[in-house]
């Protein structure tokens, strides 16, 4: 490659900078406007600086209980993250061994990823509605009358809502596992086996420590995708709403900058999670470097 | 014997994920197809065979020919928005990926700059969209800036809650889905090929058209599938950025659902699914996704 940068480099660099400005501009507008003064409106110019819109959010504006939605989304995100990590790592290991139906699972995951969200959401809603109908109308025949009496719906945050989110996060988790194992040196596993490790020991003491930083990445994806999920939840969440759904409802009614304050707060949570994940990844990689090799240290 | 045991364990490991997909993806799809052929009244679905969901959807379409009826117009508009978004995200995505792959030399910088491209994903979906309001609105920064500069006298209304703002939001959100796969294809191109092309006297443009674009094709196809499927089924972005005034394939389904006409919603979902499958299978003819990971 030539050492001097050509004219095309500067043109493309300018395009790149413009692109990044385009990406970040609106977000900064929101951050700045959320500190709008008490008399300020939804647009520039700033009319003084204050924190009052943040107070408004914490007080709750009477229409919706944002605090509760906030907690629900956090809880759902945490559960989705956990399940995504466990199932993705397990399935990733299975794909390494190879099994009948591997291609089916792979294409199902891809299909789930690119399926228009509204269709998945509609399908889950129908599934749970039909299930409810069966419970209410046919439980008596099954001798479950006492059960059907109190039955309202099986739909909810941690049933249909959780399922809807998993159809979105699991494909990402699986694809990341593929990327990890494409770069994984299989000889390490063989060496562990030759030294007499059981399959579980091989996984626990050899494979897992090596892939752990990337597994944290899967967790990060799982949480943030769930935290922001909107389209798939829309029909399948049941009676309570997640934070993005509440936010979507607010877009048509709110005329004050408190929605920006709310936006800044939700972004802050995303940032916190991202930095936490990056910190953990850094920490794990540093530990790997410390413990990774005993070359040159002689016999102990 | 050992092989059998190994594959049994693999089944146990992959099983939970498969079960989740069966329960929350495959079965729901089956229900969508079944319910699409059910009857319905004002407030509930009736489990009796009927094509009402489909016939209601296309009501009056034949009578109105050669004019397009509402549903066909809506699909035409969705395809138009989809095509615009695809063309723009592909152009920008390709340029950005090219810059990252061929002009940024150190790996660290490549990672840092790629992370910058994920900025829109750091904030919530809805927030990303309403973030355009203070910029594009009637009294937004763009209009005020142009008025202050004396370029326009009256604020431009078409900047927000219009097809323009919908496409803008799509490009803002989804260009990244083009950048990643195209970049992934590009960094696998052997630099020697590019050098050989230059040595053989090819111009930069010839190298681009004859070497880089053909080799980046898998990435282009994967990115295109992502963008097209998301935009075809979208109803959130079109709703918020279109001021709930623009119809789309996804919004039809949402509207039917809000009216509790589940079979009609399902019928529209099946139609949308059919169109999406046609587009994807046309695109996958060009590339084997599995080889690209």
Question: Would you give an account of this structure?
Answer:
The complex is a heterodimer of chains A (300) and B (293). The radius of gyration of chain A is 25 Å and the shape is globular. Chain A has 300 residues and is mainly alpha-helical. Chain A has a domain at 65-253: MetI-like (MetI-like fold). Chain A contains eleven helices and no strands. Helices cover 72% and strands 0% of the residues of chain A. Chain A has helices at 7-33, 52-59, 66-97, 102-114, 117-138, 145-149, 157-182, 187-194, 199-228, 243-251, 258-292. In chain A, helix 3 packs across helix 7 and helix 7 (157-182) packs across helix 9. With 293 residues, chain B is mainly α. Chain B has one domain: Orthogonal Bundle (MetI-like fold), CATH 1.10.3720.10. Chain B has 14 helices and two strands, in the order H-E-E-H-H-H-H-H-H-H-H-H-H-H-H-H. Chain B has a two-stranded antiparallel ribbon with strand order 1-2. In chain B, helix 13 (249-258) runs antiparallel to helix 14. The longest helix of chain B is centred in the N-terminal third of the chain and has 35 residues, at 2-36. Chain B is globular, with a radius of gyration of 24 Å. Chains A and B meet through helix 1, helix 3, helix 4, helix 5 and helix 7 of A and helix 1, helix 4, helix 6, helix 7 and helix 11 of B.
Question: What's the structural blueprint in terms of helices and strands?
Answer:
The complex is a heterodimer of chains A (300) and B (293).
Chain A: H1 7-33, H2 52-59, H3 66-97, H4 102-114, H5 117-138, H6 145-149, H7 157-182, H8 187-194, H9 199-228, H10 243-251, H11 258-292
Helix pairs in contact in A: 2-11, 3-7, 3-9, 4-7, 5-7, 7-9, 8-9, 9-11
Chain B: H1 2-36, E1 38-40, E2 45-49, H2 52-57, H3 61-64, H4 70-103, H5 107-116, H6 125-130, H7 133-136, H8 141-148, H9 163-186, H10 191-199, H11 204-233, H12 236-241, H13 249-258, H14 262-284
Antiparallel strand pairs in B: 1-2
């Amino acid at each position: 490659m030539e050492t001097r940068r050509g004219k095309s480099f500067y043109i493309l660099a300018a395009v790149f900078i413009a692109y990044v400005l385009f990406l970040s501009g609106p977000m900064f507008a929101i951050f700045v406007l959320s500190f709008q003064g008490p008399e300020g409106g939804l647009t520039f110019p700033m009319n003084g600086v204050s924190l009052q819109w943040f107070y408004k959010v914490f007080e709750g504006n009477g229409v919706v209980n944002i605090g509760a939605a906030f907690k629900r989304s956090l809880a759902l995100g945490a559960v989705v993250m956990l399940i995504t990590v466990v199932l993705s790592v397990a399935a990733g290991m299975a794909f390494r061994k190879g099994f009948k139906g591997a291609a089916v699972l792979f294409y199902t995951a891809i299909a789930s990823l690119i399926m228009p969200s509204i269709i998945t959401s509609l399908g889950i809603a129908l599934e749970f509605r039909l299930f409810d109908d069966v419970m209410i109308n046919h439980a008596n025949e099954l001798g479950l009358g006492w059960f059907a009496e109190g039955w309202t719906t099986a739909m909810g945050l941690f049933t249909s809502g959780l399922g809807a989110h998993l159809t979105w996060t699991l494909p990402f988790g699986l694809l990341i596992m593929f990327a990890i194992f494409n770069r994984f040196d299989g000889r390490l596993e063989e060496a562990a086996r030759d030294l007499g490790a059981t399959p579980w020991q091989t996984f626990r003491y050899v494979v897992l420590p090596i892939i752990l930083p990337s597994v944290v990445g899967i967790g990060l994806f799982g949480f943030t995708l769930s935290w922001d999920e909107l389209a798939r939840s829309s029909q399948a969440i049941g009676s309570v709403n997640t934070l993005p759904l509440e936010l979507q409802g607010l877009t048509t009614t709110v005329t004050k900058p408190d929605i920006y304050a709310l936006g800044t707060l939700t972004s802050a949570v995303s940032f916190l999670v991202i930095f936490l994940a990056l910190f953990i990844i850094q920490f794990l990689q540093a530990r790997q470097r410390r413990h990774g090799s005993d070359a040159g240290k002689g016999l102990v | 014997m050992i092989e059998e045991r190994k594959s049994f364990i693999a089944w146990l490991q992959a099983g939970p994920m498969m079960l989740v997909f069966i329960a929350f993806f495959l079965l729901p799809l089956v229900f969508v197809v079944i319910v699409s052929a059910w009857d319905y009244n004002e407030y509930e679905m009736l489990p009796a065979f009927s094509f009402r969901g489909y016939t209601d959807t296309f009501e009056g379409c034949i009578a109105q020919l050669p004019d397009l009826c509402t549903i066909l117009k809506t699909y035409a508009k969705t395809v138009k928005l989809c095509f615009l978004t695809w063309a723009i995200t592909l152009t920008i995505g390709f340029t950005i990926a090219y810059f990252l792959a061929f002009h940024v030399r150190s790996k660290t910088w490549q990672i840092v700059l790629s992370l910058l491209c994920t900025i829109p994903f750091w904030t919530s979906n809805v927030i990303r969209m309403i973030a355009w309001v203070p910029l594009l609105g009637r009294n937004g920064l763009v209009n005020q800036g142009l008025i202050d500069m004396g370029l326009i006298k009256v604020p431009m209304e078409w900047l927000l809650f219009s097809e323009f703002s919908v496409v803008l939001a799509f490009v803002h959100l989804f260009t990244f889905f083009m950048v990643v796969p195209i970049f992934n294809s590009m960094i696998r191109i052997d630099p020697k090929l590019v050098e050989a092309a230059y040595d053989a006297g090819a111009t930069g443009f010839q190298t681009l058209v004859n070497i880089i674009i053909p080799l980046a094709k898998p990435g282009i196809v994967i990115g295109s599938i992502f963008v097209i499927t998301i935009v075809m089924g979208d109803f959130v972005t079109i709703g918020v950025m279109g001021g709930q005034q623009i119809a789309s394939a996804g919004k039809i389904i949402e509207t039917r659902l809000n009216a509790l006409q589940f079979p009609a919603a399902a019928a529209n979902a099946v139609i949308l699914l059919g169109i999406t499958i046609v587009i994807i299978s046309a695109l996958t003819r060009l590339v084997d996704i599995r080889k690209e990971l």
